[in-house]
Design goal:
The complex is a heterodimer of chains A (113) and B (116). Chain A is 0% helix and 50% strand. Chain A is mainly β and 113 residues long. The termini of chain B are far apart. The chains are: A mainly beta (113), B mainly beta (116).
Chain lengths: 113, 116
């Protein structure tokens, strides 16, 4: 099992609420990623970070924001949730050197009603 | 930009049989990594097998092997002696070397169902 954790696993929330999805890893990895996985299961990169105080937007435009104040922590925030944000969100990290394997969290399934 | 294409949305195979999942990619890079990841139903995504582009030898991991054709930009996954536990979504993925940026680009995935 990889040491990368996402909380909560499932979240049902009303429209307009602010939410933060948590992602933590204990492997000391610099590079971390957020993917949105749609119902068809395709993965879209929405945010990534190469280290502390480094964040970049991914290939899919997202209204969410991220922060990277500590190496081990990469939270994703939605200021005002909408039904269109309903999706599964996957967090991943990659070691700074070596064989470039990505480790994934178990995901957060978000439903906005 | 790199793109990864998986042309088989769904595949089925009988237990103990062999199945091949297809993947093609597009890049102007000469050195890169290719991966197959497995996402079982409601479970974590895990790495199945990895190939470094500068290595000509095809990677193998037990029942899993790849056919890497660099010139054709093709990277197929062969699963031998399929087991029920192989039922999952399989993603092909591409990444440039770590020092050249680290975005992991995925294909659309192939659902594999192993039948008893």
């Amino acid at each position: 099992e990889a040491d990368i954790y996402q909380t909560p696993r499932y979240l049902v929330i009303g429209t307009g609420k602010k939410i933060t999805l948590e992602c933590s890893q204990t492997m000391g990895h610099d590079k971390m990623y957020w993917y949105q996985q749609d119902p068809g299961m395709e993965l879209h990169l929405i945010h990534y970070s190469y280290g502390v105080n480094s964040t970049e937007k991914g290939d899919l435009s997202s209204e969410s924001t991220v922060s990277r104040i500590r190496t081990e922590h990469f939270p994703l925030t939605l200021e005002s949730a909408r039904p269109s944000h309903t999706s599964q969100y996957l967090c991943a990290s990659i070691a700074p050197r070596g064989l470039a394997e990505a480790f994934f969290g178990q995901g957060t399934r978000l439903t906005v009603v | 930009a790199q793109t990864v294409t998986q042309s088989q949305p769904e595949m089925s195979v009988q237990e103990a049989e062999t199945v091949t999942l297809s993947c093609t990619y597009d890049t102007s890079e000469n050195n890169y990594y290719l991966f197959w990841y497995k996402q079982p139903p409601s479970r974590q995504m895990i790495l199945v097998i990895r190939q470094e582009a500068y290595k000509q030898q095809n990677a193998t991991e037990n029942r899993f092997s790849v056919n890497f054709q660099k010139a054709a930009k093709s990277f197929s996954l062969k699963i031998s002696d399929s087991q029920l536990g192989d039922t999952a979504m399989y993603f092909c993925a591409f990444m440039k070397p770590l020092e050249r940026g680290n975005k992991l680009v995925f294909g659309a995935g192939t659902i594999l169902r192993v039948k008893s």
